[in-house]
Amino acid sequence: xxxxxxxxxxxxxxxxxxxxxxxxxxxxxxxxxxxxxxxxxxxxxxxxxxxxxxxxxxxxxxxxxxxxxxxxxxxxxxxxxxxxxxxxxxxxxxxxxxxxxxxxxxxxxxxxxxxxxxxxxxxxxxxxxxxxxxxxxxxxxxxxxxxxxxxxxxxxxxxxxxxxxxxxxxxxxxxxxxxxxxxxxxxxxxxxxxxxxxxxxxxxxxxxxxxxxxxxxxxxxxxxxxxxxxxxxxxxxxxxxxxxxxxxxxxxxxxxxxxxxxxxxxxxxxxxxx
Length: 274
What we know:
By secondary structure, the protein is an alpha/beta fold. Helices cover 49% and strands 15% of the residues.
């Protein structure tokens, strides 16, 4: 879709309760297909892509990589979808989802965060060991990219998915990630530049579900536990056997948890309306 700012990916399928699904870095809305298939009937699923991926135009620069630009694009998708939507974000899309919820510029019925890279929350909470794990990985990754290492991004992918994850991806998926390395580096600048704190997250009042993988990196697991603990009434669910890329590897479990959360949130809205 064309907006006042630039083009933003927008696609929808199905009928029923509206769920807006935001993918992570190096992905497009197509990444949600396994989850959408597992959700089945009863949902209107709207997908998009983050800035610089798919058909969504980049708005950030190396001089201004504010995550607010990402939030604005997602807000445009929510407005196009219409009404109160259930927002779901994976990885960096989950971090953007938190920003959208905090900005309160579009009506959200609920939020589901699927393993957001909330590194700055680790730092603000004094979780130095886990915060350093993120920083060590990204510093080495950025240095390798600057040195001309073509597959530098593989280190980031394997940090999240475990050793060998990148190598196991199809060649076309690897090629897309490599091609979008510079965009992913902007994503990290956006994330590290957002001062996420427990106090800030405590302002979120909508129903929130946080998902993490039982096999995910300990730093990612801890970061998402803190996200959940910081939001009043938020639920934390761990999918055993899953790692960061669970929307592909454990789509049925992810879909079941999203559906349950959406139904609960709809019941809350219905009860308040009585």
